[in-house]
Amino acid sequence: MVNLRARTVVFDLDGTLCFDGRTIDGRILAAIGECERAGYQVVFASARPVRDMLPVLDGAFPSAMLIGGNGSLVSVDGQVRARAVFEPATLGGLMAAVARYEAGYLADGPWDYAYTGPVDHPIRSRVDQGGLASRVELVELPEVVKFLVVEASDMAELAEAGRGLGLMVNHHLDEAIIDFAPGSTTKWEALTSMGIGAYAAFGNDINDFDLLRNAERAVRVGTHPGLDDVAHITVPAEPAAVAAEISLLARTAQAR
To answer: Whole-prediction pTM value?
Structure first.
């Protein structure tokens, strides 16, 4: 049996709970419900902006805290706020690099978005699935909280340019995308800013590194090698296996 003092459990979405980009298996939802009833605070922390987390959750767990944009957005009691934004000078430097490397991108504001990438890029199927926002020009966004490059003439050089600007950079080689966030923004940094220090976490990708590294119990879903040193346990990227591990937390709490 797992022995935890943490009363919060944090879940990444894509590749951790959601395996088709759109839905969460009913067995996983039921297991998270068990955790909530057992007294856990449930938090969902995603690279997606809050706008794109909502259709995946589909009304489930309305009281859960949502951390979006890898930590740049937080939603509490349905109120979305930006907690980290690109400074104008930094964004200008990034846009100069975007032009230099002929990059296509998805830029998110607190709610709306700008997109210049290919019409048929896979990321488009995950953007504004619920039809909740508007696609606008970059200059129309009141703030930019997240910037995702989906194509470029040299992705590696563009990633380095972002690091040189002091941005948090996640270069996802398997998907050929680069995820830029303001400053040192991470899911873990956002979580701690909300006063949560002790927690269990489920994640699957390199943008979950700090979240898992600082968790009392860190569950890696799948086999991303970048998480080898921080995962306490690894489960297959399958709904039944993930649901079983979540249910284990609920049973632990109930046994206290």
So the answer is: 0.86
| Residue 171 CA: distances (Å) to CA of 42, 116, 162, 178 | 28, 19, 10, 4
Cα 145 to Cα 49, 131, 151, 204, 248: the distances in Å are 9, 20, 19, 22, 35
Q: What percentage of the chain exceeds 70 in pLDDT?
A: 98
pLDDT category at 256 given cuts 50, 70, 90 is low
Q: Report CA Rg, the chain.
A: 18
From residue 197, alpha-carbon distances to 80, 189, 204 in Å are 21, 10, 20
Given a cut of 60, whether residue 255 has pLDDT beyond it is no
Measured CA to CA, the distance from residue 233 to residue 181 in angstroms comes to 28
Contacts of 163 (CB under 8 A, 6+ apart): 169
Write out pLDDT tens, residues 173-221.
Answer: 677 899 998 877 899 999 999 999 999 999 999 999 999 999 999 999 9
When pLDDT is averaged across residues 130-151 and rounded to a whole number, the result is 95
CA pair distance 114, 106, nearest whole angstrom: 6
* CA distance readout (Å), 112 to 49, 219, 231: 10, 32, 35
Residues with Cβ within 8 Å of 15's Cβ and at least 6 positions away in sequence, in order, are 204, 205, 221, 222, 237
